[in-house]
Amino acid sequence: MKGYRRSRLIRLIATGDVIPARSVNYHMVLYNDFAYPFRRTYKYLRSGDLTLINLEAPLVQGCPVSVYGMTFCGDPRAVQGLQLAGVDVACTANNHMGNYGEAGILETWSHLRYAGISPCGLGTTVYKTVKGVRFAFLAYNCVGERFDYPLARTQIRQAKRHADVVVVSVHWGKEYVGVPTTEPGIADDDPQKVAHWIIDSGADLIIGNHPHHVQAIELYHGKLITYAHGNFAFDQMFSTQTRQGVVGTYYFYGKKLVAVHYRPVFIYNYSQPRWATPTQAAAIMNEMRTATRVLARRTRRSA
Questions:
Q1: What are the CB-based long-range contacts (under 8 Å, 24+) for 156-162?
Q2: Does the domain spanning 7-302 belong to CATH 3.30.360.10?
Q3: Model's pTM, two decimal places?
Q4: What confidence tens digit (pLDDT) does each residue in 30-50 have?
Q5: For residues 98, 100, 103 and 104, what is the CA-based torsion angle, rounded to 10 degrees?
């Protein structure tokens, strides 16, 4: 990047939802290749100084292999794919991480830590120092439960005291839409209200997920919010939009976010994201721009 010393640039890479369960788990077991979902993308993912994912399934011994159901789990050997992709932080605050109870969460954290991957969320803040800049990672779930505004503010402010950059991962909003919105009875907290609260509490960047669609982005008080990166390693092939996602690369110069690049992916074989073709990529980015414009108009009307 012109104008910046390369030695001081820090690249944070973040994907859409990673769910090593159901058909994704089935294909890993079938091929006896637990890095299969990452085979087409790992070189780029591991090129970041920090790589972040939202891990939306517990990794438990004896996980049944199935392509059906809404109770998710994955084979613990799925960490092999995360290692191949160079994942540094796996956020675990989401609506499926608790599918196997507290024991499943603790077992998942154990597998991640053994693989050298730091779990964040559910009260755990992760700190990573890169090129002299200290990053803090926090994560919150707003699906199936309400967002705790006071607690989040306390935790984010505490992280800000100990870090130069605070990155917050959030699981939120209505599924299958491009503009962030609530889903009554399921995701009652307005993603935009939550996002603004998080920024006002001291966060520097928000990485959103859950809607299974690529969603809008927003600049709020000079801080970037990516509401949803879409799907990444997932088995939803019932629509074009659910097969889409973006990998976000966030460039920091020192502690300042100076650029962002979104690289689109398209999912194949119910499990494996591949880099989108030029035609696919153009469509994905056009949808993201359209959603961003719609959100901006909605924000102006409500101001």
A1: 156/198, 156/201, 156/202, 156/203, 157/201, 157/202, 158/125, 159/125, 159/202, 160/136, 160/202, 160/203, 162/127, 162/134, 162/136
A2: no
A3: 0.97
A4: 999 999 999 999 999 999 999
A5: -80
